[in-house]
Every structure is written in C-alpha cells, then in structure tokens.
Amino acid sequence: MRLLVTLAMLAAVMVSAAYSYTPETVAVKAGKQATASKSKLKFKFISVVEDSRCPTGAQCVWAGNAKIKIEVSVPKGETKTFEINTETGPKGDQIGGYAVTLESLTPYPNANRPTDVKKYIAKFSIVRLQR
Questions:
Q1: What are phi and psi of 118, to 5 degrees?
Q2: With contact defined as beta carbons under 8 Å apart, do 116 and 97 qualify?
Q3: Mean pLDDT of the chain
Q4: DSSP secondary structure letter of residue 24
Q5: Closest CA to 98 of 37, 28, 13, 21
Q6: In the chain, helix, strand, coil percent, each to 5?
Q7: How far apart are CA 3 and CA 60, in angstroms?
Q8: Which whole number is the average pLDDT over 33-54?
Q9: 7 lies in a domain?
Q10: Is 115 left (phi over 0), alpha (psi -120 to 50) or beta?
C-alpha cells in the first residue's frame, strides 16, 4: 500500500513539473499588443527594425535575417524592451523568470512586391525558468 501511495505521489509531482515547463505560445501583430494566457506576460510588437530575409521567389546566397523590437511586461513587475532576430544575433531574452524566444515572423518578403508592415505577425515561445 505504501508503495502505491509513493508511486501516485511521484506521478503527481512529475505531471505537475512537466506542466509547469510546457512552452506557451503567443502571436502578436505589428503595432499591436497581446497577453499570454498562462504567464500573463504582455507583448507589444513595436517595429520591424530590418528584414533582409531571402524573398520568396528569389535565389539567395544566405537566408538573411529579420530583427524586430518588442516590449514585454510582467504583471505587476518590470517592463523590458529588446530586439530579437530570426536567424543571427539574439533570438530571445529573459524577463521575470521567463525565457521568451521568437519562433517565427510572417509573412516572408516577396521578390515581386514590398511587404506591408502592418501584416507582420511575430510568434513567441514562453518557458518558465526553473527556480
């Protein structure tokens, strides 16, 4: 009986640990704000600093890079502004016990037409750091 109780407690701890470190995602449109549902981190997509990614329909020597400027706020805590990249340079940062990483930036540039800045959407991954 003790073994059964011990195994049940161990399973509960493992499930709660796995749940607490499951990445959360949030998507934010350029010029807009969004709040992550679990962590309650607030994201503001300030601007696209540069987008030199290889356009769709073009042949490029390298993939290029896009850099965006965002502001992230912790509920009742600090606010931090930083620049993150799709390929080169920092792809994320840490704030309030969370790691924030840029997962994707859409749309990709197109060789035949300029990208409308308002159509950019950044998708972020949020992971609670271990204490």
A1: -70, -15
A2: no
A3: 88
A4: E
A5: 21
A6: 15, 45, 40
A7: 61
A8: 96
A9: no
A10: beta
- Who wins on pLDDT, 16 or 38? 38
Q: Name the amino acid, one letter, at 129.
A: L
**Sheet strands side by side (includes 33-35):** 33-35, 42-51, 66-73, 79-85
Q: What is the pLDDT of residue 10?
A: 54
pLDDT in tens, 49-102: 999 999 988 889 998 999 999 999 999 889 999 999 999 999 999 999 999 999
Tokens of 104: 């994707």
Report the chain's C-alpha Rg in angstroms. 19
Asked if the structure places residue 99 within a domain, the reply is yes
Is 12 inside a domain boundary?
no
- Sign, Cα dihedral of 123, 34, 91, 106: positive
Q: DSSP state, 10?
A: H
Q: What is the CATH number of the domain that holds 88?
A: 2.60.98
pTM of the model: 0.81
Provide the number of structural domains found in the chain.
Answer: 1
